[in-house]
Amino acid sequence: MDVGTEQRFEWQGRSIAWARRGHGPDVVFCHGTPFSSVLWHPFAEALARDFTVHVWDMPGYGRSSKDSRHPVDFAAQANAFTALLSHWGLTEPHVVAHDFGGAVSLRAHLVGGVPYASLMLVDVVAIPPSGSPFFQFVQANPGLLDQLPGYIHRAVVRAYVENASHKELSGEVVDALVEPWTGDEGQPAFYRQIVDYDEKFLHDNENRMGGMTIPVRIVWGGNDGWIPVAQAHRLHDLIPGSTLTVVPSSGHLMHHDQPVALMHEVRAWLDERTRRS
């Protein structure tokens, strides 16, 4: 599933890349930062036999447009997600989200009132506190790293992405994750999505979670160095009726650290929810 050669949704001046495969109950995958839907492609392909799977790149990410005039904060992405779901004609999809995609899908549901059949949150940005020392440096120095020579910027992004894994990523995987953030368009977009990051939306999420009634599954890497597993337990306590699994020997990129375990979690959750429906 190459999102770059698939469908386009034009929305408020943005061009959102997306793809759809399969037949059955609707499942939507949401990626995080600084990643793209590429992380979810193998899982979507494996599920397409029994589900209609949807993947998309948030505006400012992957193969979607990266116009500097368009905000890429949580609220903007949640609005884009809401519009895209309407464009697809989906009413109650099963949503599976990673990292930043967690806060985006939560805001679309909690603030925008978008109904889901279920929600799975995998090592998500969802509640405060958040933001690595690198995030804090970029936010304190907006525009500074945009000026780095391209080869230095690429090295910075590679180191950042590699740090998300508990195990060593292959060069091919790192290249695929880094490539959208390079060049005249990609480099400033990489830093812009950090500068636009605003934790106030996470506080808003936290204050609203007590009223959630949809089924929620939380899956977390036991060795997540970006978002400590303590956040998973806090999130579990905040969302009524949620369930939590901690996967050993996995960092923030469970997709590559423990792909079999993650596939098992996703498949078991979707099978359980669709049997009940």
> What is the overall pLDDT average?
94
The SSE string, one letter per element, is EEEHEHEHEHHHHHEHEHH
Taken together, the total number of domains comes to 1
**Beta fraction of the residues?**
15-25%
Structural class: alpha/beta
Number of strands: 8
CATH topology: Rossmann fold
Spans of at least 5 consecutive residues with low confidence: none
Q: How are the strands of the biggest sheet laid out side by side?
A: 1-2-4-3-5-6-7-8
Helix content: 40-55%
Q: Characterize the biggest β-sheet.
A: 8 strands, mixed
CATH class membership:
Alpha Beta
Oligomer: single chain
**Molecular shape:** globular
Distance between the termini: 28 Å
CATH architecture: 3-Layer(aba) Sandwich
Describe the structure.
This protein is of the alpha/beta class and 277 residues long. It has a single domain, classed as Rossmann fold, CATH 3.40.50.1820. Helices cover 42% and strands 17% of the residues. The chain has eleven helices and eight strands. The chain has helices at 41-47, 74-88, 100-110, 133-140, 150-162, 171-178, 183-195, 200-208, 229-238, 254-257, 259-276, and strands at 7-11, 14-21, 26-30, 52-56, 94-99, 118-124, 216-221, 243-247. An eight-stranded mixed sheet has the order 1-2-4-3-5-6-7-8, with helices on both faces. A hairpin with a 2-residue loop joins β1 and β2 (14-21). α2 crosses α3 (100-110), α3 (100-110) crosses α8 and α5 (150-162) crosses α6 (171-178). The protein is globular. The two termini are 28 Å apart. The mean pLDDT is 94. It comes from Kibdelosporangium lantanae. This is Alpha/beta fold hydrolase. GO terms for molecular function: hydrolase activity. Residues 27-262 form the AB hydrolase-1 domain. Keywords: Hydrolase.
